Predict the structure.
Amino acid sequence: MAISKPSPAIPEPLIETLEARELVIDIPGRPAGRPLYLRIAPGERWGVLGPNGAGKTTLLHTLAGLRAPRSGEVRLGGKPLSRLTRRALARRLGIVFQTHHDDFPATVRETALIGRHPFIVPWQQEGPEDLARAEAALERLDLSHLADRELSTLSGGERQRVSLATLLTQAPQLWLADEPTNHLDLHHQVAVMELLAEQAARGCGVVMCLHDLNLAARWCSHLLLLYPGGEVCWGEADSMLVPSALEGLYGQALTTAMVDGAPVFVPKR
Amino acid sequence: MADASVHRVSRKRRLRPLAWLALAALLALAIALALGSVGIAPDELAAVLLGGGDALHQTLVLELRLPRALAAFGTGALLALAGALMQILLRNPLADPYVLGLSGGASVAALLAMLAGASMALVSGAAFVGALVSILIVFGLAHGTGSWTPTRLLLTGVVMAAGWGALISFLLAVSPVDQLPGMLYWLMGDLAYAGSPWPVLSVAVISLLVVTPLGRTLNVLARGGLQAAALGVAVRPLEWTLYLLASLLTAVAVTTAGSVGFVGLMVPHMLRLRLGNDQRLILPASLLAGGTLLTLADTLARTLIAPQQLPVGVITALLGVPSFLYLLSRSR
Amino acid sequence: MHKRARSVSMAVLPLTLIIGLGAGLPGIARAEVCVGDDAGHELCLEAPAKRIVALSPGVTELLFAAGAGERVVGAVSFSDYPVAAQALPRVGSYDRLDLEALLALEPDLVVAWQGGNPREQVERLSRLGLPVYFSDVEDFAGVAGTLERFGTLAGTPEVGATTAASLREEVATLRERYANAAPVPVFYQVWEQPLMTINGEHWISRSLELCGGVNLFADESTLAPRIGVESVLARDPEAIITGGMGKPDSTWLEAWRDFPQLTAVQRDNLFFVDPDLVQRATPRLVEGTRQLCQRLEVARGRR
């Protein structure tokens, strides 16, 4: 198993690099496990894999500064997240959540438009440019025809795409996505992975929690495996996609095949 | 498409409903001035408003109807605004200004003051202090624990409300019979006891100036605390600001007219059914609609079976429930 | 119609004008009348009141008894005695006044019920310049004194004084007759659900006392305390008296027969008195007291 260790001399970080230093995420009642040293550089597409309850969402929230770590710290552009204002952070880092709180009525367009919130000063209104960005994001996620619909009338997959449209409207340099393909049909799963890859190609850093090994194998440049006991390992995707490591991760025997030059994993019966 | 959409979020889209609501508010105030148990013809009313007219009519319109109508408007405005804020704070469209036990604290203190034979001004003062005590207790209990969530605040407040409710029943049970009518009317809410309208009105205007710039941020908060934080909102300070603001508004309203029910729950809710949930529209609209509703309700309360006077809470419910159900049935 | 401004003196200006015509100078207090009210205020009118609004049924009754009936122009709900009061224009109920209706009657005197009327509303009347007399009658002495004062305020001092004197005399007669009567422990029932009685401060209790009755709940702290059936059983009244629901209705009394160990039940000392005669502290209370005394005499006869 190849594990990338942090190099002793840490280079001057790029502005958009997200770093985890000696990071231990805080899951109540669980031992600390191995501390994380991550550098998510522009253009990298990180996939976080692990069984249910391993802490994928907690890790993502900690990286987004929404949750305090047990120890260690997360830095963005060399600055600890705790020293950035929420607003400054939100201009550079965005996240798609797994669950949505649609307690109040809102249309699809309004929901996409709130992605511009960090960029508008309190006493200002959304301008035509903000709206154009939201419209473009809806268009990109195949949602233009639903723009005036209420969220409560959408299907699960449509709602998931609206969340991604909000993030695309926010257009951060770092994209965190918690199971972005949830509820999506196959076509839209691929479309979303293409969208994330496209953002990475533009120079964004992307971190996504995934359940689908094959999507991870196809679209991720780096992988981080979270084991239930707190053990963790990470590295470039090719080096991590080893059947024995993945079988240990899920406690599930796998059959591997190569398709189009990429490994495909199928559970054994 | 983009042009039409720009129009959709423009100020104009928000100003039109507000203009209508402002018109309705003026109309309601005019009706409140025109109607009473003594009939005053429109030309007489105009004469009075222009500074002339019959002396009795002057007294009726300027000394009785006007202050009471303004107090009703201010109280309704504060309650509806507080309700709208509380609903966002708790992310629960069914929250109302009283859900966190605030009116209970105010009522207990007011009843104690009445029992002690305090003057009306002291009863109002006691109600305000009681509301503040309730705010601080709930704040302290929900805040002291660290793991703070709206659910926790809601639970703390609801339990406090239940406790206050028991104390109110206790006070009613041990109070002298001749005090009971005054106490019950206070609990039901009644503008006959309202003093000067200026405190409620000025607080209403100031609070609107405070919350209007927060509108867009509140829209984001309505999507949940995590989502709001991810979009750059400092959630915890904002939530405490909301809590304290909504509580203070409610305290001032309760101090003016007792626990008038229904307005704080239904007005923001009804407006959302019609206008969506943009707080930049909903907050000022709540203010106007809440004031209008309570002004009309109070006018009915004092004229419907005059000279017998009804508690205004009865009318707000009788007016509000059918219109709410109508809007609900027509909404998607 | 005269112009009416908003200060105390201006409110009664029209009257002053009429009365002051002879003197040439309006405002001179030729016929000024002053009394102290039950709130401890000194109330002066520049002339006896001609348009009085009474804010409780009891006050209405007292005004009529003081000879001021013709000068009462407004009353509240349930002002049913004397019969002439039933036709008076209403200004709401005692606990919820219609100030507009009241002002429209253009009164020159408002007689409020201290403790019964909403303070804020009555205070507002004062602020609007209306003379307000606060009435709070607790016993026969209060009734008699109030009759005299109402007579003074309404320009019928003779009627007020005569009625007061005869009331005092009748009460003195009753007091004398029962001065040495054997004490009878009494439970006076005001209400059934919840079970309520009166304490020693209440005029009914004082009337009972006058007849040699002993109110078993005289020491309670509130005027009309809510009590439990057990405490009635524990104190074992010799007589149970009630005013009922306004009409002779024996159900409240019959309910006590479930407790045959009560002395009052064993001796059938379950009595009804006409509530109209005892529920208000007015001259009719003398007749009510007579009824109470008769009931106690019956109880003594059954020993």
Notes: Residues 106-171 of chain A form one domain.
